[in-house]
Design goal:
By secondary structure, this protein is an alpha+beta fold. The protein has helices at about 10-20, 40-45, 65-75, 90-115, 120-145, 160-170, 185-195, 195-205, and strands at about 5, 25-30, 55, 60. Strands 2-1-3-4 form a four-stranded mixed β-sheet. The chain starts with a strand and ends with a helix. Glutathione (GSH) binds near residues 34, 52, 64 and 65.
């Protein structure tokens, strides 16, 4: 059985959510802490120190969405929009949008938020990064808001990995600081995704 390396609230949530949607299981190894600096055993598996990683036999996969795609394909799941379906290009676009475009300003905010022992000059720089990231995020959410006009899901009229990809940063956007960035469609979409039993079960994994 494949093994997933997981930290609650990390991007391994996407993988657990995918598994719950499919009704499939893997062995889950919960590391409990940020592994990058503290877990030599994990660094031997993934020298980049990022989560998640999946080991399946002699294969290791590191990117959360590559792992989701790998597992969904192996189970023949319609969470993947197949190459011969009309909305395949939109599927790939939104699959990448969740990580490469929506998540990046959030990651920048989290990264500068971890800086300790700040001087006033550093704080001014951090505030500038935070303001810039927030502005990017607000612009990037506008495209999502537009896409959701008349749609319950992002592509193909059904739940796909694109929704799981975008659902991960949307989950973070529940914090009060961010509520004003989401328009009415993105707010309702976020609530629909997070209410899915598969998401609820995945998010409850320790
Ligand atoms: N694009 C990668 C990003 C992986 C990533 O940055 N994961 C975070 C946790 S959500 C992490 O491991 N951060 C630790 C670090 O930045 O060193 C993916 O989707 O798997």
């Amino acid at each position: 059985m494949a093994t997933l390396f997981h930290v609650p609230t990390s991007r391994s949530l996407r993988v657990l959510w995918t598994l719950e949607e499919i009704g499939a299981t893997v062995e889950v190894k919960s590391l409990g802490v940020r592994p990058r600096l503290h877990e030599p055993e994990y660094l031997a598996i993934n020298p980049a120190g990022t989560l998640p990683a999946l080991i399946d036999g002699d294969r290791t996969i590191y990117e959360s969405l590559a792992i989701c795609e790998y597992l969904a394909a192996r189970h023949g799941s319609d969470l993947i929009v197949a190459p011969d379906e009309p909305e395949r290009p939109e599927f790939v676009q939104w699959l990448l949008y969740g990580e490469a475009t929506l998540q990046t300003p959030l990651s920048a905010m989290a990264r500068v938020g971890r800086i300790r022992n700040k001087t006033p000059e550093m704080q001014a720089g951090i505030d500038a990064v935070l303001a810039d990231a927030r502005h990017s995020l607000s612009m990037r959410i506008k495209l999502l808001e537009q896409r959701l006009d008349g749609r319950d899901f992002l592509v193909a009229g059904r739940m796909t990995l694109a929704d799981i990809s975008v659902g991960y940063p949307l989950n973070t956007l529940g914090k009060p600081d961010f509520a004003s960035l989401l328009g009415p469609r993105a707010t309702a979409y976020r609530e629909r995704l997070l209410a899915r039993p598969a998401f609820q079960r995945a998010a409850a994994m320790p």
